[in-house]
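Deviations from the work plan: none for this task. Representative record:
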Amino acid sequence: MDAASGLCLHCLAPLEGPEARAHGFCCRGCERVHALLSREGLDRYYELRRGAGLPVGELAGPSLELEAWMQAQEARLAASAGPAPVALDLQGVHCAGCVWLIDTVARREGALRCDVSATRGRLELVAAPSFDLRAFVRALASLGYRAGPPLKRARAGLDGLTVRVGVTAALAANAMMLSLAIYLGLEDGPLHATVRDVAFALGAAAVLVGGGPLVRAAIEALRRGVLSLDLPIALGLLLASIASVASWVRGGDAGFADSLAVFVALVLGGRWLQERMVAIDRDRLLATDGAEGLVTRRVTDGGVEMVRCMEVRRGDRLLLAAGDLVPVEAVLEDPCLLSMDWIDGESQPRDAAAGTVAPAGSFVAGARAARAVVAKDFVESSLHDLLRTPPDRRRGDLLDRLVGPAYVLIVLALAGGGAALWLALEGPGAALSVATAVLVVTCPCALGLALPLAHERTLGMLRRAGVYVREPSALARAAGVDRVVFDKTGTLTFGAPRLADAGPLEALSEAERAIAYRLAAQSSHPKAAAVSSALPAVSLEGAPVHEQPGAGVQVRIDGALYRLGKPSWAAPGRDHGAADLVFAKDGAPLARLETVERPRPGAEDEIAKLAEAGYPSFILSGDAPSRVQALAARVGVPEERAFGGASPREKADWLAARDPERALFLGDGLNDGPAADVAGVSGTPAVDRPFMPARTDFYFVTAGLGAVRALLGAAARLRRTTRGILALAVVYNAVAVTLALAGRVEPWTAAALMPAGSLATLAYTRLSLKEAA
Amino acid sequence: MNVLVLTLFVSLCLAAVAVALFVWTVRAGTHDHLDQLSLLPIEEDPSEEEP
């Protein structure tokens, strides 16, 4: 594989933009991990992976939450008398290659045992007291795997469903196998009676094991006042069970028991498939317990302690290190550089002087730590509100969203009408039989299995495109979307700025470029990172570099003072035009530089394609309106559809006032949470912190924005397939219901009709989506 | 005839064993570690590492 193929050399994602195509990697993370794997002799990962991987994105170090958890674990491990277990949540694990890689690294670091679950994103180690957990987590981070404390909930419900599906399927298959003997001619006699009784017992056991969740779902839907597809399924189940027991007690055959067991197994299998796929997508990211899990550094008389933010009170003193979150409004005792990206979408970090209030939800963007005195209790902080457990986003079941209550009504009406007619004509026995036949042979079975299968295949296609759906009904809702609303910073753009033109740096002499690199590389300001990434790397040894908070960095070499920073500080008293960064020698500018936000690769192209497909794009941002308009012009969003300066609440209100159910909202920061809760469908590219993915319907890991079109396209295809399945069901039912209403459906006919209808529907589903794949 | 009943009984026993094993594997979390289990054939034999 090489870059000429247009795919990333590490993850095989399509390369978007000329820069990526020139490097051969979709992102910096992939490039670094690829180099590391080659250097460490871990190339076997590529052989074992078989197929595309996941883009690494920006590599990030462990979070403060992990740090707090790790300290406790390290202490526990060191105090243990012998090998002890350690559990971690993982993000970024997706295949056997990842499992092998992590296992190999764990063994190299000295772990005695390492169990990795790719589907759960969990890691369980057994290690000796001397094991360096911190080094291991750091090694995982360098390979693109993010570790976190073990917060993922056990999938007890899903595991229970797995057992039920397996047991029900086994019982149903055995019941059907025995019943076949009777259908194929086993007549009266002791063997007939034995086979009949055993088939009935197996069928009844299958219904008892598998029917519970279906009946419970119907009761829950009724309690919510929803006319759910579960209702005819549960009614059919109950009536057929009664008919089967009555038939068996009377000494007749096993009635519907065998077909009923297959019916339950198929419907339950479909439900399991649906639940499992979204559970896997959810577990691919680290879990969050919202405000409960946040920790911070509190200054005490004896030093610094890690405490849960919930315990932070007014008057406490905090130590805010580089990259730390400011959990609550606090008065700074030292100057520092703060990023407001999370709370208002502001793309440029701000200098905060000592004595000013650092808002809750801001991050320390500079390298210097700062002390701050907490101004209010954490529970009163605005961050606490933003992190509140999001409202239940399960807006209806997938099947109900796809099928609608009209279908359920028709099925119930047909069953009721048929029963009434046969009650008048032949009495209660025939009426029960007809109603049961209608409910069993109608398409709930086909729909109950075919629609989850279609959903699963669609999720699989999306996963291969780097899009992960977390909510079961998200695709059904996405089919109703008619516009896309983007947040700006971190969503339409990467958070970090880059140079609009690197020409002034290229015009420098080699020695000046080396000095500029040394200055830029030793500053923590995001603008300096834009400069260092545009210059060739050199050694950082030499005269000490000093950072002037709020101004820039400087170094004295051979008596000359070199500065990189604000134009008015680096080269005062001169006109620098649009430049916002200047590299100067003794006050004389050597290079005037302008930084711009970097749109995601191919953003303009994607927005144009979305418009072609009938989805106009909007920008809704908390950043300054001028910057929002500038970006809108760059990516092709009309001026009247780009809005800046909006607070988190204003964003949500803007969406709520404009038919929110038809809007797909894409955001990355906590400030986007309220808008994500209001929008019909919400997504995020921000997978580095779990708060935002936890309250959105989907997330994506690709560098570009193709995920949005992929999701909308998949939703439209799923809707088309659903309509096809419904059309097939109507044809099938026209035949089956007519036979049932005519009283012509014997148990064996139902046993043949039902799988035949299901198989035809499944074949159609597979063909319909195969074309799309 | 008796042979058929016996066969039926044995097949049901086998099915019961299969179901029991399935339940055990789900509870043991085997289904969550399928990727790791698939790597067992290529795992190096620890005895070969001994000098």
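The helical segments of chain B are 2-27, 34-38, 46-49.
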